Amino acid sequence: MRARERPPVETFGAAWDALFDRPIAHRGLWSRDGAPENSLGAFQAACAHDYGIELDVQLTADGDAVVFHDERLERMTGVEGRVRDHTAAELGALALKGTDETIPTLAEALTVIGHRAMVHIELKTPFGEVGPLEKRVSEILIDHNGPTAIIGFNPYSHAWFADHHPQILRGLDSYGWNDEGARHVAPEMRKSMAALEHVEIARPDFLALGLDMLPSPKADVLRAKGMPVIAWTVRTPEQWAAIQAHCDNLIFEGFHA
């Protein structure tokens, strides 16, 4: 049985089919001379080109969920400090890359996107932690009727959604776990996650895998059993051609997929 033919939970609704419907723009359809990443302008552009959208969310000091990738603000705003130390209002006043775009809340982003695109919401919950961000995102999704999925690297975050909101589609992120950013994770845990052993903890509905681990024999086995695989981040048509036979969709940037 092909992965995309896996019988979905009834309450997934249109979200399941939307997993395969359109390529997914990484942090929206942004460009260096246009709308910056994770901005409302980038999401509008993705919708205009009929793409799905991947975005990142973090918890603010006042318990809201904002759309921003980095832990720190410097690269995208020129302001020093961490996202988590500011309120949503304070973050919403910061300009992104010198443009008129500012940091949106997740609720604002979903309102702009509406039903026009499938949205993959990557939770930036610190590894091993779970709770406030998951709860806030679930509250926001209750009021959003468009197709969405939760993605992220923290298997315990996925397990929380599986236990509390099984109707929300979930995709477990993974990659080779051999870069500088993975150094805070114990070596044995990194090896386990690179081998996809944490799938049992997360209980995902699909996998979102980095190019550095594709093709993956373990993912091929899971896919054959009905678990779709989405590749990230694909930056050229040639990269996609090399792994397309092992995947069901792609998260892309830098070109029009």
Automatic annotation (TrEMBL):
GO biological process: lipid metabolic process
EC number: 3.1.4.46
InterPro entries named among the record's database cross-references: GP_PDE_dom, PLC-like_Pdiesterase_TIM-brl
Coiled-coil annotated spans: none
Organism: Caulobacter vibrioides (strain NA1000 / CB15N)
A GO molecular function held by the record: glycerophosphodiester phosphodiesterase activity
Superkingdom of the organism of origin: Bacteria
PROSITE patterns named among the record's database cross-references: GP_PDE
UniProt keywords, alphabetically: Hydrolase
Protein name: Glycerophosphoryl diester phosphodiesterase
Pfam families: GDPD
Record domain GP-PDE: where: 21-257
